[in-house]
TrEMBL record:
Pfam families: STAS, Sulfate_transp. CDD domains: STAS_SulP_like_sulfate_transporter. The keyword Transmembrane applies. This is STAS domain-containing protein. GO terms for cellular component: membrane. Keywords: Membrane, Transmembrane, Transmembrane helix. The keyword Acyltransferase does not apply. Residues 443-553 form the STAS domain. It is a multi-pass membrane protein. InterPro entries: SLC26A/SulP_dom (IPR011547), SLC26A/SulP_fam (IPR001902), STAS_dom (IPR002645), STAS_dom_sf (IPR036513). GO terms for biological process: transmembrane transport. It comes from Aurantimonas aggregata. It is found in: Membrane.
């Protein structure tokens, strides 16, 4: 049960004092100040009202920290979900989004309960960099309309190429006042980050943009003009409206939410581990993410996940335990209760500037260029994922990128398997020279060789991707000695395909009238080979070392003429 024990329980067991609470309170307030404008901006970019973003951050963030397997994880709405959420809202409406969020929560909890969190972390790094960079590009494209104050002739297209074409066609409608507020907000974010990196740059810039627009009396779009402001309280929880047709319709979206949520949250937890030196519990974290998504949907929120930027802010601000994440949600709730009317004055252009800055940081430009230069295979995986996310969709990009990454890994692992062979040294000469065990040293061509015994050594993970090439090498052995010794002591992994290759080689040796002894096989490998061989064929012969195999083969070969006579 330890792997499912929330970190808050571990923290309380270790002892939690007033100094730790003070540190968590400061960190929670810092994160809440960052999350306040970001949650509203992500909600608006996702096609829902800003209050749903705040509800998601409050309810989801509290539950992630309460039940999570990371000390520092901060949950809430994430930029990575903007594309999926917007597409779901466009296709199925708000109720469809809430149902999809509820279902994704059940899926995430099931993934954690089945202990599949370890496998989620096997997503190749080029895939994560590729889809993150792709998401950043699309997020930036979705904010251009609000940033420049453009007026489109019709609805804004969803496809990137069509969207850019429509925005270019609307260039004459650019609003200078909107652009001025957006550019000022973005410049303030950059300047504050550069000169005062510990200050809440996002909140300062949005507040300054809001004040400037209000004082100047600019006629630009605000949260108040577009959404009528935000409520000063949380909605009452209620179950989503379920119907069989709606569940079937939103199921693909729910699967995408769960997959991306698992990846994003575990990546965020890994970042927190690297910054803090702690270790998270991945399966417990997935269960918490599931609970948080179900909880957020009950209050009308949408997808919750671990957020890398806010989690890193929590660590840098001195957070010590999940209490910091819980307090971050409490502070957000206080902001909503006290200052909700002020949100009506926030220009949408200022929030667009916030998301453009977030997208710029999400792109991970240094990692992209490093992977493009590292190897051709990594460059192909990254580029394919990136392009599919931009021009197709996020799920296709992840699936295809993961498949390419897996194939690349198999190719590299198969290439690492080596096969080498030589005639065995005479046992008598080996003993006379006082050499070490033959299984512990490379072949030495200076020793006297036994022409009747051929030793073949396989090194590396011997699995299905390498089975064909290894089998071809074994088939091409030109020598036809009276005995073979197959050394597999340096094979850490042997699967059924590899076992079938060895059994086929054993059958061939038997047809040629040659002995075959297998040296250094583990107990698991021996069982697998015996199963593959079957009971109808003569059993395979195993020895612990090459020296024992050579000695046994020599003794049997020497005894063969006498027995035949």
């Amino acid at each position: 049960m330890e792997m499912f024990t929330p970190k808050i329980v571990t923290t309380l067991r270790e002892g939690y004092d007033l100094s730790a609470f003070k540190a968590d309170a400061v960190a929670g307030l810092t994160v809440a100040i960052v999350a306040l404008p970001l949650s509203m901006a992500i909600a608006i970019a996702s096609g829902v009202s800003p209050d749903r973003g705040l509800t998601t951050a409050i309810v989801g963030g509290f539950l992630v920290s309460l039940f999570g397997g990371s000390r520092f994880q901060i949950g809430g709405p994430a930029g990575a979900f903007i594309l999926l959420v917007a597409a779901t809202v466009a296709a199925h409406g708000i109720e469809g989004l809430i149902v999809a969020t509820f279902l994704s929560g059940l899926m995430l909890a099931a993934l954690g309960a089945l202990r599949l969190g370890t496998f989620i972390k096997y997503i190749p790094y080029p895939v994560t960099v590729g889809f993150t960079a792709g998401i950043a590009v699309v997020i930036a494209a979705t904010q251009l309309k609000e940033f420049f104050g453009l007026t489109l002739a019709g609805a804004e297209p969803g496809e990137l190429v069509e969207k850019l074409g429509a925005l270019a066609a609307a260039a004459p409608t650019l609003d200078p006042s909107t652009l001025a507020i957006a550019f000022t907000t973005l410049a303030l974010i950059v300047l504050v980050r550069h000169f005062r990196p510990h200050w809440p740059s996002l909140l300062i810039a949005v507040a300054a943009g809001s004040i400037a627009a209000t004082v100047a009396g600019l006629d630009i779009a605000t949260i108040g003009s577009r959404f009528g402001g935000i409520p000063s309280s949380l909605p009452m929880p209620h179950l989503p409206v379920f119907s069989w047709d709606l569940v079937v319709a939103v199921l693909p979206a729910a699967v995408s939410f769960a997959l991306l949520g698992a990846i994003e949250s575990l990546l965020s937890a890994v970042v927190a581990d690297s910054m803090s030196g702690r270790r998270h519990r991945s399966n417990c974290e997935l269960v918490a993410q599931g609970i948080a998504n179900v909880g957020a949907s009950l209050f009308g929120g949408f997808c919750v996940t671990g957020t890398i930027a806010r989690t890193a802010t929590n660590v840098r601000a001195g957070g010590r335990s999940p209490v910091a994440g819980m307090l971050h949600a409490v502070f957000l709730l206080v902001f909503v209760l006290v200052a909700a009317p002020l949100a009506a004055y926030v220009p949408l252009a200022a929030l667009a500037a916030v998301l453009l800055f977030v997208a710029w940081n999400m792109a991970e430009r240094h990692e992209v260029f490093s992977l493009l230069r590292s190897s051709r295979g990594d460059a192909v995986v990254l580029t394919t994922t990136f392009l599919l996310v931009i021009f197709r969709d996020l799920t296709t990009g992840i699936v295809v990128g993961f498949s390419l990454g897996a194939l690349l890994f198999l190719h590299r692992m198969a290439g690492a398997v080596t096969v080498e062979g030589a005639h065995a040294p005479l046992v008598e000469a080996d003993r006379a020279d006082g050499d070490r065990d033959l299984g512990e040293r490379p072949f030495d061509e200076t020793l006297v060789r036994d022409p009747d015994i051929f030793v073949c050594r396989i090194s590396g993970a011997f699995f299905f991707a390498a089975a064909g090439s290894v089998g071809a090498v074994l088939d091409r052995i030109a020598e036809r000695p009276r005995a073979f010794v197959l050394d597999v002591a340096e094979v850490p992994l042997l699967d059924s395909s590899a076992a079938a290759t060895i059994v086929a080689f054993a059958r061939k040796a038997r047809r040629d009238g040659a002995l075959l002894l297998i040296a250094g096989a583990s107990e698991a490998a021996q069982r697998l080979l015996d199963v593959q061989q079957g009971k109808s064929a003569p059993p395979l012969r195993f020895t612990a070392t090459v020296a024992e195999a050579v000695a046994a083969a020599r003794a049997e070969l020497d005894a063969a003429p006498a027995s035949q006579a």
